[in-house]
Design brief:
Largest sheet: 5 strands, mixed
Structural class: alpha/beta
Radius of gyration: 31 Å
GO cellular component, one term: plasma membrane
GO molecular function: ABC-type transporter activity; ATP binding; ATP hydrolysis activity
Subcellular location: Membrane
Strand content: 5-15%
Strand order of the largest sheet: 6-7-5-8-9
Transmembrane segments: 356-376, 388-410, 431-457, 463-486, 498-516, 575-596
Shape: elongated
Number of strands: 11
Main location: membrane
Oligomer: single chain
Length: 603
């Protein structure tokens, strides 16, 4: 989809939105001095990609230290926009990460995405009407009016273009009128027109409200280069230049690096950062160019930058004070109830496309009728068939919800980390809203399954037995989902989590005695921590009593309680089974919550 070309208006605030403007009314001067960053790596037989990240490879024990940033110094004033330039792997993203202290939604409309951000991040001192107006204003500033009712899209759903998606992401940040804005390659993948729109909007945002804007950018066009107030050029983690954008060419000419032909200035700088001068690609020459540029920076620019650090009067003591001010308030923009309400609505809108799909419902209906036909009008006279169906239902409605739940938090990890770092909401409101939003579809499908199969399979034709079977099946779904959430939140890797979940489920099924009658005592205890064991007991209890009779031979009747399978599992003690499942339901979800909380604390 081609980017829509719309005018981006300067950032201006009406009187009605003065309170929004004052949400972040303190200008921030960002000063960073001798920023060094190194990571401990291990020898690998793979390829290094990006800023210290490795592709899949064999890990050996020999540890090494890799220095990513090597003494970066700079200062950015309110109203200024700094561009961090350099080739891939030079440390641009790592620097932004170090300065920011922290490492869109597919099915929603652009307006909904920005509206949810406004409702969560703007404080209660601002009315809902003002938040709506602020959202509409940002949409206009970003040039998104023509596509505001288009869904964001995702891997399998076509939505907005790449340029529009990036502008929405930026809009989520500028909604709250931040004093400091850090962006990692906001123009990457955009055409020249879209890139110019984004940079122009960010420049206006910095100028109008005295904000400090930093961004990494790979290789901007000439007309973009001169929009930046300051430039920081990096090469292999070393600073080569820091200063005004208009003074860049003059500086490099003064140290002996000038171009006699017309050339894109950003291309020229990236070539220098790669050690290429006058198209000389010799490896030794490139090494000499890099060393010469690093030495020239230290001799000509570094001392001046350090003097600026000493002389600069920082109104709020820089980034440290900015962070501390944010931290010391100890308050959230909205109440817990408001967070829960907004997040629940967002989750419902996000999941309705995937949950209530025709394919998913159709699959469940087909399976239900297939099971109904296979077990058609079975009765207590075919008790082995009936308990076989109960085993299948028990297993199916424990595996499917568990595997679905394992994917929940790993898929949302990046979004959760980003939004929690921005203090959009409490973890508890997100966790509970996510759990509640899953309930309709998680419970609707097994309800449909039981409703179809129960009567076709010929189970007890009483309302009490039917409702008991339905409630036990739904209980199974909730407990299995809890187990999946716990596994997913602890592992945070879908593939590894699925493997671990499969091992746990198989261990539960094997130890319960479904496949073997004589289980070694040292492993028999596993059945008492298996939800399948208790669910099976409750399903059997919904249809039979120990004293019921069934034909076990020609003209011979036996007690249900003496059936080898039922005798092994046992009927009765329903209260114990319900209580054990309740402990699992709460316990697994508590484990999931704690794991997510630890994930946040380790960032």
């Amino acid at each position: 989809m081609a980017d829509r070309e719309e005018q981006i208006y300067p950032v201006q605030f009406s009187e009605q939105e003065a309170r929004i403007k004052n949400v972040r009314s303190h200008p921030v001067t960002l000063k960073f001095k001798d920023v060094t960053y190194e990571i401990k790596t291990k020898k690998r037989s793979g390829i290094l990609i990006g800023d210290g990240a490795y592709s899949k490879s064999k890990v050996e024990d020999d540890s090494n230290a890799k220095v990513i940033l090597k003494g970066i110094t700079g200062i950015v004033q309110p109203g200024e926009m700094l561009a961090i330039l350099g080739p891939s792997g030079c440390g641009k993203t790592t620097l932004l990460t170090a300065l920011g202290g922290r490492r869109l939604l597919g099915g929603q409309l652009i307006t909904e995405t920005l509206m949810f951000t406004a409702l969560l991040r703007l404080p209660n001192t601002i009315t809902k009407e003002e938040k709506i107006n602020r959202t509409e204003e940002v949409i206009g500033q970003l040039g998104l009016t023509g596509c505001k009712n288009t869904i964001m899209g995702g891997p399998f759903i076509r939505g907005v273009s790449g340029g529009e998606r990036k502008r929405v992401s930026i809009g989520q940040e500028i909604l709250t009128n931040p004093s400091l804005l850090l962006l990692d390659e906001p123009t990457s993948g955009l055409d020249s027109t879209s890139a110019q729109q984004v940079v122009s909007m960010l420049g206006a945002f910095a100028d109008e409200g005295q904000r400090t804007v930093l961004m990494s950018i790979h290789q901007p066009a000439s007309k973009l280069f001169y929009m930046f107030h300051k430039i920081l050029l990096l090469s292999d983690g070393n600073p080569l230049y820091f200063g005004k954008g208009n003074d860049t060419m003059e500086y490099f000419s003064s140290i002996g690096y000038s171009s006699s032909i017309a050339v894109n200035l950003s291309d020229f700088l990236v070539d220098l950062a790669n050690g290429v001068y006058l198209d000389d690609l010799d490896e030794e020459s490139r090494k000499d160019v890099k060393q010469g540029l690093v030495l020239a920076y230290k001799n000509n620019l570094l001392n001046r930058l350090k003097e600026e650090h000493k002389l600069e009067v920082d109104h709020n003591n820089g980034l440290t004070r900015y962070r501390q001010m944010d931290k010391d308030t100890g308050q959230w923009p909205t109440t817990w109830g408001q967070e829960f309400s907004v997040l629940l609505k967002r989750d419902f809108l996000e999941r309705k496309h995937e949950s209530f799909s025709v394919m998913l419902v159709g699959q469940n209906v087909v399976l239900s009728f297939l099971c109904g036909i296979l077990w058609w009008k079975s009765s207590i006279n075919h008790i082995e068939d009936q308990i076989g169906f109960m085993f299948f239902s028990n297993m199916y409605w424990s595996l499917i919800p568990m595997y679905n739940a394992i994917l929940t938090f790993p898929q949302e990890r990046m979004m959760l980390t980003k939004e929690r770092s921005s203090r959009m909401y409490r973890l508890s409101s997100y966790f509970i809203a996510r759990n509640v939003a899953d309930l309709p579809m998680e419970l609707a499908l097994p309800t449909l399954f039981v409703t179809i199969t129960y009567w076709m399979a010929g189970f007890k034709p009483t309302a009490g037995s039917f409702l008991t079977t339905l409630l036990v099946t739904l209980y199974n779904v909730l407990v299995s989902q809890s187990l999946g959430l716990a596994i997913g939140s602890m592992i945070m890797n879908p593939r590894t989590g699925a493997v671990l979940g499969g091992i746990i489920c198989q261990a539960f099924l094997l130890a319960c005695g479904f496949y073997i009658r004589t289980i070694p005592s040292f492993i028999a205890w596993i059945k008492y921590i298996s939800q399948n064991y208790y669910i099976y007991k409750l399903l059997l209890g919904s249809q039979y009593k120990n004293e019921d009779l069934y034909p076990c031979g020609p003209n011979v009747s036996c007690r249900v309680g003496s059936n080898p399978t039922i005798e092994k599992i046992g009927i009765g003690n329903e209260v114990v089974s319900v209580a054990a499942l309740g402990l699992m339901l709460v316990g697994y979800r508590l484990v999931a919550y704690i794991a997510l909380k630890r994930l946040r604390e380790t960032k």
